[in-house]
Structure formats: C-alpha cells, structure tokens
Write a structure and sequence with these properties.
Blueprint (H helix, E strand, L loop, with lengths): L1 H10 L3 H24 L5 H27 L3 H14 L7 H17 L3 H16 L8 H37 L3 H13 L4 H13 L4 H13 L3 H14 L6 H14 L3 H15 L7 H20 L3 H12 L9 H16 L3 H14 L4 H13 L3 H15 L5 H6 L4 H15 L3 H14 L3 H20 L3 H24 L5 H20 L5 H15 L6 H23 L6 H25 L7 H15 L5 H9 L6 H11 L7 H16 L6 H15 L9 H20 L6 H20 L3 H13 L8 H29 L1
Helix pairs in contact: 1-2, 1-3, 2-3, 3-4, 5-6, 5-7, 6-7, 7-8, 8-9, 8-10, 9-11, 10-11, 10-12, 11-12, 12-13, 12-14, 14-15, 15-16, 16-17, 16-18, 17-18, 18-19, 18-21, 19-21, 19-22, 21-22, 22-23, 23-24, 24-25, 24-26, 25-26, 26-27, 27-28, 27-29, 28-29, 29-30, 29-31, 31-32, 32-33, 33-34, ...
Length: about 800
C-alpha cells in the first residue's frame, strides 16, 4: 500500500511526499525479506515469495531513483540504480524495464541541459540492456539510446567528445542501422571538422543503405550550411544518378537549382532550369510537389529582380515559370503569374504585351481584385480614363467580398485598402487627379479599415483645396460641394471608430474640424454651405478634448450656423421656412449650453454673443408665431448692456412676414427710443424714425379702431415727437415734421367725420402745432392750414349748435 501511495505522489509531481511512503515500503519489504531468509530456502513457496519481494523491492528502488532525479539529486539516484542493477542477476526479466527507465532519465536530464548526467543515464541504459540478450529491450531501443548519447556529446562539446560521439553513433548503427543514425554520423563528422574523405565515406554509406531521397537532400543542405560546397554538389550529382529512375528525381534537381541560386550562380541555375524544362516535356515530368517548389524558387528570384528594378531579368524568371503551364490551362496561380508578367512588361513599356498578359489573367481569375488592379495600372498608363474607372469600381465591389485563401497568403486583411491607396498614388504620379479622386472615393466607400478611410479622406480634402486654389468662383462652389460629403464621412468614421487611440481620434477630429471651419468661411454667398460646414465643425469639436479655446470655437460655429439658417429662411418661400427656423432654434439652444459652460469656467470677456443669440431666437420664434417670443424681448431688456440697434432690429422682425406682433414691435421701439434719448447726444434723426414707426403702427386704419385708448397712445407719440423737435429744431428732418403734421390732421378729420368734434378740434390743433417747426415750407403750409383750420373750427361750432338745438 505504501509503494502504491508513493507512486501516486510521484505521478502528482510531489517527490518529497513520495519519498516518505517509498521509505516505509522499502523498510517493510526488507523486514519481510529478512523474515523469509530466516526460515531458510528449501520450500518452493518461500523461494517464490522471496522472488516476489525482490521484484517489488526493485520497483520501489527504481521509484526512489526517479524521485531523486526529479529533485536533481544525481548521487542518490545513482545509488538506488546500482542496487537495482545488482538485483538483475536474480530477476533478469526486469532488464528491459530498468534499461528504459535509465533511458527516460537520460531524456529528462538532456532536456534540462544536464549533459553529464544525461550521458551517465544513457550509458547505463545501453549497458543494462546488453546484460541480457533474452530480456533486454531489443537492438532498435539500444540504438535509440546510443543515438541520443551521441547527440548529447555533440551538443555538450563536440571538440572534446567527438570520439565518444562518433563511437556511440557507429555502435548504434551496428546495433540497428537507421536513417537517423546515418544522418547523425554525418552531422558529427562535420562538427568535428573531419576530412572530406571521411565524410564522403559516410555519404556513400547512406546511399548503400538505401535511405530515402529526402534524407539525402537534407544531407546536401547540411553540407552547404557547413561550407562544404564542393562536396555538397558532388554528392548531389551522385544522388541524382542514384535516383535517376525514380519519379522523385525532380526534387533533387530543384534542390540543385536552389543551391546554385544560394551561391549566386545564376547562369548555371538558368542552364539547369532549361534542362529541367526540356526534360519535363520529354518524359521526365516533375512531381506536383517538386514543380510547386520550383515555382516558388522561380517567383522568389523574379521578385528579387523586380524589387531591384531589373524588370527584364524578372520577366525571364517569370517566363521560366510560365513554361510549365500548358496552353489553355486555367488556375489562380496562372493568373498571379500573368499579373506579375504584366507588371514587368508595363515597366518595360511593352504595353500591348502587358494587355495580353492581363487579359489571360482575367480569363483565369476574373474575380481577383489584383487582376483589376493590374488592369487599372495599364489603363492609367494608356490614358484610358473610362477603363481605369471601371477597374476601380470593380475593385470596390471585390473589396467587400472575402479575400480568397491564395490571396491571403500574399497580403494582409487590408489588402484591398492598400491597393486602392496605391491606385490613387499611381494616378497622381501620372498627373491623373480625377482618377486619383475616384480611387480614394472607392477606398473610403469600401474599406473597413478606419485608418485607411481617414487617410483617404484627408487626401481627398487636400485635392479639393488644391483644385479650388486656381478655380473661378463657380468652380470653387462645386469643389466645396464635393468637400461636404467627405467631411460628413470623416465625422461618421471618427464617431464610430473602435481601434484607434484616444489621442489619434482627437488629432483626426481636430484636423477635419479646422477644415470644416475654413470651408465655412469661404461660403459668404452660400448660407446653406456655411451652415452645413459650421455644424460639422461643431460636431467634430465634440470629439476633441474640451478646453476654453475649443468651447469658444463651438460657440462661434453654432452662432454662425443659426445665422446662416435664418438667412436661408429669408430667401425661402414662407411655406418652406419652418424647417430652417427649427434648425436655427436647435443651433441656438446648443449655443446657449456652450455659453453656460464658458461662463461657469471663469470670466468671459464682454461680447455681443448673448444679444445676437436672443436676436436670432426672437426672429425664429416670431416667424414660427411662437408665443415665447415675448419672453425673448424681456430677456433682451434685462441685459446689462443693450444696443438700440438690437431693439430696432427686433422691432422690424416682429412685423416681418410671416411674423405679425405689432405690440412687441411697439414695445421694442419704445425701449429703443428711451435708450437713445438717454444718450448724451441723442440723434434726432434716429428718434424721429422710432416715433414715425410707433405712430404708423398706432394709427387707426378704420372707424372700428378709433378708441380712446388707441387715441391716447397715439397722442403720446405725437407729444414725444414735439418734444424731440423742440429739443433739436435744426436737426429734425423737415419732411418728417410735415408727415407728422399730416397724420395728426388726418386723425382730426377722421374724428370730425365720426362727429367727435371735441377730439377733432384737439387733433387739428395738434397738427397746427407742427407748422411752426417747418422750415422753408412753413409759410406756404401756414397759409393753407390756417384757412382750413378756421374752416374746421367754424364747422365745429355749427355742428355743436346743431347738437344743442336737437337737444
């Protein structure tokens, strides 16, 4: 029971606990063994029991050795193993078990790079295995231990232990010859810097032992890596002769080509390839694997020449590869090859041959984005704009489809984006700006790579500005129209990006924000464009880290967007104004929020922003017939500094169709008049305008509006006019005085017609009071009005007498 418990603890990687139970098991077995020995050995059952005890004891001792090895206690493990070896004479059946255990110890210590311990255990494995031919592990296992022993010596210190390593592998090959043993012998000979003759003998031994061609190829590569070039090519020739009738001969020929190219013997490699091509079509066909390897070598060599700018050489190597394809053959690899050939021909200015090659590529693989890219390159060089655009559109469609597995071997997931970027670059290098714009637009529409999309949008913006610099005003407007969707897409991309850092996101947003701002400033005659660009500038600024300067920019953007919306409204029919007015209110409300944030952050310099916002809100609500418009005027009047110009403008807006708020208009005019008259030097002309408007708004338009309240309000305005005239008789416009006179007289006549004689006399008298303030017109009007006034007074007296008579 103790032995099983100890074994379990060993399996659980807890050798300390295992040791305790294993010692108990050994002690128990030794006690049992001594009891059995004390009874003598005559009885058969006692002899059998003694053998069982010895067998159990060997197993436990081997477990103790295993525990010691795992605890890196090499000395103790060796003691336990020696006891086990001593017991093998009595129980030889455990020879294989003990040999394999030592082999495992050798493997474990080798993996831990404890080479000295590893050589001890591997030697023990071989020695123990040789003690019994009947019960040993077999020659193949012994050879395996010897090969590992040779490998340990090789990696430990080949110069110091080269003889031991060589002896071990030779002995292994005598025990059981194997491919790995023969190959290991070559490795040891090379590492020990043996002569070519010794190595040649080892190589001949490999051929005599009928090792596979792959092993011979590995030996050739090993020779090349150890700078035994002459011997490698000599052996390769022998291998080719040895396997001359084998269908796998092609692999050796391809290796020959590869090694020649590695040593920069390109001319010899070409001769060898031409021989292979000749043989391939004369009965010595390469296997599919060998042919694939050769294609890889040929394409790699062509690629090196292409990158170095040696396009003629690159084409020759691609042509070698093309020689192995049959006429009419169709497969993706052939399409790739034709694309590569077309690229070489394009660089060599052989446009017609390039067209033929890419036509074949399209026939073999029409759904390849790379084929369309080559078609595009040829079209650009051929100045075929329509063909180039068709290819770009096809690339855009294909970029949204999964890339084929063959293409994935060549390019990353963003292959389509890279190709479209390169397409734009090619167009610009060839002076085809419109084509470049199309390529970038396709990139931005089809790519899922946010970085590529933003890069493409930046390029598009720069191209728009470069076109606009030398354009007439009309063309500049067209360019700005192109710019707007680019900025909208940039906003959408930055808002939804998930793979970029916060710093990169802020940088992109700020760049496009500035573009939107500058574009808005160029739309002085286009309020729709100005509004859209300022709104975009604001929206992009929301994606930037907030600071005072940015908030000021947001405030200005929203203020200008509101102003532009109102300007659009003024130019639109009344039936279509609601949308623009609603948008203006949205911008105004957002601007108020920004203003609150700014005011909360510290002292804000005095500026007209609040007045303008209230003015814009007043206009929007007035034209929407919103009752809240009255509160806006109150808010303006509550401002610390109110300009009369603002009140004057609000008065005009209150009556500008479709708005109709006469009372608000008069209230604004009264406030403006009051403010203006409080100034140190009030301008009579301005005052007259305010009074004129107030009187015009208050004049009864018909009999139904003649009320005492209305007349009193009107009378007050005329009195204000008189006081203004009296205060500045020389500065008041004469025609304005005449207008006031006329309006007061007309009011009196209206009252007279309504039999309100007392009021009529009062108003006519008011009119007469303006005569003395006339200048050059006074004399003529005084004569006319005096006569009329006398006549009116006479009629009033008669009318009054008639009334009394009737009573």
């Amino acid at each position: 029971m103790a032995s099983k418990t100890g074994r379990t603890w060993l399996d659980c990687k807890n050798p300390q606990m295992a040791d305790h139970f294993l010692r108990l098991a050994v002690k128990s077995l030794e006690t049992l063994y001594s009891q059995l020995m004390s009874r003598g050995d005559a009885a058969a059952d006692i002899t059998s029991s003694k053998a069982d005890v010895e067998k159990d004891l060997l197993r436990i001792l081997s477990c103790q050795a295993e525990s010691a090895v795992s605890q890196e206690n090499s000395g103790e493990a060796k003691v336990y193993m020696q006891r086990c070896k001593d017991m093998l004479q009595r129980i030889p059946k455990d020879t294989a078990y003990l040999s394999l255990m030592c082999y495992n110890f050798g493997v474990d210590t080798y993996n831990l790079r404890k080479y000295e311990d590893s050589t001890f255990w591997l030697s023990q494995s071989y020695d123990i295995g040789k003690t019994s031919a009947k019960y040993g592990p077999g020659p193949d296992v012994l050879a395996k231990a010897l090969r590992l022993l040779a490998t340990v010596y090789l990696e430990w210190d080949c110069q110091r232990f080269q003889e031991k390593a060589l002896d071990a592998v030779i002995l292994a090959n005598k025990e059981c010859v194997s491919t790995s043993g023969l190959y290991l012998k070559i490795r040891i000979l090379l590492r020990s810097e043996a002569s070519d003759n010794h190595i040649r003998a080892g190589l001949d031994e490999m051929l005599e032992s009928q090792v596979p061609l792959e092993v011979c190829q590995s030996a050739v590569k090993l020779l090349m890596s150890e700078d035994r070039e002459m011997l490698a090519f000599e052996y390769l020739k022998c291998v080719s002769q040895h396997f001359g009738s084998s269908p796998d001969l092609g692999a050796a020929l391809v290796l020959h080509v590869e090694l020649l190219l590695q040593r920069n013997k390109e001319l010899l490699a070409k001769q060898k390839i031409e021989d292979i091509i000749t043989g391939h079509y004369s009965g010595k066909q390469l296997t599919p694997d060998a042919l694939t390897s050769l294609h890889v070598i040929l394409w790699d060599q062509a690629s090196k020449h292409f990158e170095a700018g040696n396009y003629a050489e690159a084409l020759q190597w691609y042509n070698y590869s093309f020689s192995f394809f049959k006429a009419g053959q169709m497969e993706p690899n052939l399409a790739k090859l034709q694309r590569n050939r077309a690229s070489c021909l394009l660089h060599l200015q052989q446009l017609e041959k390039a067209k033929e090659a890419i036509k074949e590529a399209e026939r073999s693989d029409p759904e390849s984005i790379f084929t369309q890219f080559c078609i595009y390159k040829i079209a650009v060089q051929d100045d075929n704009v329509q063909k180039a655009v068709e290819a770009l559109n096809a690339m855009g469609v294909l970029s949204k489809s999964p890339v084929s597995s063959e293409d994935r071997l060549l390019l990353s997931e963003s292959a389509a984006s890279c190709l479209l970027c390169l397409a734009a670059q090619i167009a610009l290098e060839n002076g085809r700006q419109e084509t470049a714009v199309k390529a970038l637009e396709v990139l931005c529409e089809s790519s899922k790579d946010e970085a590529h999309v933003l890069m493409g949008l930046r390029c598009l913006v720069r191209l728009v500005f470069s076109s606009a610099e030398n354009s007439a005003d009309q063309l500049r407007d067209v360019n700005l129209d192109k710019l707007l969707p680019y900025l909208k897409q940039a906003l959408h991309t930055i808002s939804h990006q998930s793979h970029m850092t916060a710093e990169r996101r802020a940088e992109d947003a700020n760049w496009f924000r500035k573009i939107a701002w500058n574009s808005a400033l160029q739309c002085e005659s286009r309020p729709d464009g100005m509004r859209d660009f300022f709104v975009l500038s604001y929206q992009l600024s929301l994606l930037c880290p907030p600071d005072r300067a940015l908030l000021m920019g947001q405030r200005t953007s929203l203020l200008m967007a509101a102003a532009a919306s109102l300007e659009l409204c003024r130019k639109s029919p009344h039936s279509t104004q609601a949308e623009d007015l609603t948008l203006a209110l949205e911008h105004i409300q957002a601007c108020w929020e920004v203003c609150k944030t700014l005011k909360a952050s510290g002292n804000l310099p005095a500026d007209p922003t609040d007045s303008l916002l209230l003015l814009y809100e007043f206009e929007a609500r007035a034209k929407l017939s919103d009752p809240k418009v009255e509160t806006i005027l109150e808010s303006v009047l509550e401002l610390e500094h109110v300009e009369t110009k603002v009140l004057e403008t609000m008065a005009g807006l209150a009556m500008e169709p479709p708005a109709h708020f006469p009372q608000l208009c008069k209230k604004a005019l009264r406030a403006a008049l009051s403010l203006h008259r409080k100034q140190p030097q009030a301008d009579p002309t301005h005052c007259s305008k305010y009074v004129h408007s107030l009187i015009k708004l208050s004049l009864p338009s018909g009999v139904s509006e003649v009320e005492s309240r209305v007349l009193q309000e009107l009378w007050d305005y005329f009195e204000d006019a008189l006081s203004i005239i009296s205060a500045a008789p020389d500065g008041f416009p004469e025609m304005e005085t005449l207008w006031l006179l006329t309006q007061a007289w007309n009011a009196g006549i209206l009252l007279y017609s309504l039999a309100q004689y007392h009021e009529a006399e009062k108003w006519c008298g008011l009119a007469m009071s303006f005569i003395r303030h006339l200048g050059s017109l006074r004399e003529s009007y005084e004569m006319q009005m005096s006569g009329l006034y006398s006549e009116i007074l006479d009629r009033l007296d008669k009318a009054k007498k008639n009334i009394h008579t009737e009573e």
